[in-house]
Design brief:
globular; Tumour Suppressor Smad4; 27% strand; 7-stranded mixed sheet; single chain; 6-stranded antiparallel sheet; Rossmann fold; alpha/beta
């Protein structure tokens, strides 16, 4: 019965991929609009709201869109996860809140939406790329208790290692001041040192200019570390269009086949192989290969089966235990533990790619363990 339901689900996924290939590229986008008082000039704020509302209306199934505004502080309006029906009611609720916004804030503290975005995306579990888009006419107008952020500070708040892209859409003088270079209007620019932070300068904060900038963000498919040589290759037109529907269909069929194979082999699965990449507070790092038998617990710590030590601090004998049961890997904290930045006070599910921290000092990244996952 379980296998039959799984096959039906995978076939439905295949059909949706073939009919709506754009849904494959669905990801998580955060859009912040500046609500400081200067946005009232020349209709800037109304233009920004109109474009923001358009993006909400045009969000497609599979898209996840966070909407917020900021001035002295950050304020999250809501999260929109578009389902197959288009989530019309949810869109209307968020649009109503956007229409009611007014620009009255005295300051533009850019670090506020950046810090908020980082916290949100570290908690967001949906698949897909991550984009942060900020619309502001005054990126360098902080309150007295905040410092103006430069590119280095921005990259410190949202580091490149997270794999996210950050887009700053603002007036030309602000973008040029931030990137310390002369930039053509509406040109997407990056600094080689911080390629994930991208600026789009606008000569004026009009509806048309903002709309063009947002379209540039949506069409920007370059990886943060893309080389100049790779970028230059893209200037030559492709002789033949890539048959994306066929490729996506083949990938989906492959996923169906692999999933069915895994279902058939589930009853033979007895061990889970993982690699723990451990880095302590002074920068020492090592990889520990861990093989966990189904239904059996392993302990982690200086005296545990998984060796975790720190040169600059004393840890208890066991800091946590892990148990593989019912298809999930369970972590039971026995010391101060966070998972992906969130305090774990009780048993919690962890998996590949999760980041565990012990007392905010020792970092443990869970990685795939290779062939140990299945025993003969």
């Amino acid at each position: 019965m379980i296998r039959k339901n799984l096959v039906s689900l995978l076939m439905a996924l295949l059909v949706s991929l073939l009919l709506s290939p754009l849904s494959v590229f669905a990801g998580v986008t955060l859009m912040w609009v500046d609500t400081s008082g200067s946005m009232n000039k020349e209709g800037r704020f109304e233009s920004a709201k109109d474009v923001l509302i358009r993006e909400i209306e045009n969000a497609k199934p599979g898209d996840i869109l966070y909407v917020g505004h900021f001035d002295t502080n950050d304020y999250l309006i809501g999260r929109l996860a578009v389902d197959e029906s288009g989530s019309k009611e949810e869109k209307e609720k968020i649009i109503l809140k956007v229409r009611s916004l007014s620009a009255r804030g005295p300051w533009t503290n850019l670090d506020e939406p950046l810090q908020a975005s980082k916290a949100i995306l570290l908690e967001e579990r949906a698949a897909g790329n991550r984009r942060i888009v900020i619309l502001s006419d005054g990126l360098s107008d902080p309150s007295p208790d905040h410092q103006a952020v430069d590119l280095a500070k921005i990259a410190e708040i949202v580091p490149q290692s997270l794999g996210w892209s950050l887009y700053l859409i603002g007036l030309s003088q602000d973008i040029e001041g931030l990137f310390q270079t002369k930039i053509s209007e509406s040109q997407l620019t990056v600094n080689p040192e911080y390629p994930h932070v991208k600026g789009i300068p606008l000569a004026e904060f009009s509806h048309e200019k903002i709309e063009d900038a947002v379209e540039a963000v949506k069409n920007d498919s370059r990886e943060p570390a893309e080389s100049k040589e790779a970028a230059s290759l893209q200037t030559e037109p492709e002789p033949n269009p890539i048959p994306w529907p066929l490729i996506l269909g083949a990938l989906a069929l492959a996923a169906v086949s692999i999933s069915l194979l895994l279902v058939q082999r589930t009853k033979h699965r007895e061990k889970l192989g993982l690699v723990f990449e451990i880095r302590d507070g002074v920068g020492e790092s090592k990889e520990v290969h861990v093989s966990i038998e189904k239904g059996k617990k392993k302990t982690a710590g200086p005296n545990g089966e998984i060796q975790i030590e720190a040169l600059d601090m004393e840890l208890p004998a066991v800091v946590f235990s892990i148990l593989w049961q019912k298809g999930s890997l369970w972590l039971q904290p026995q010391d101060s533990i966070t998972v992906n930045g969130k305090l774990a006070s009780d048993k919690v599910v962890v998996g590949i790619g999760d980041l565990i921290k012990v007392r905010d000092k020792v970092s443990i990244l869970i990685k795939e363990g290779g062939d140990e996952n299945v025993t003969e």
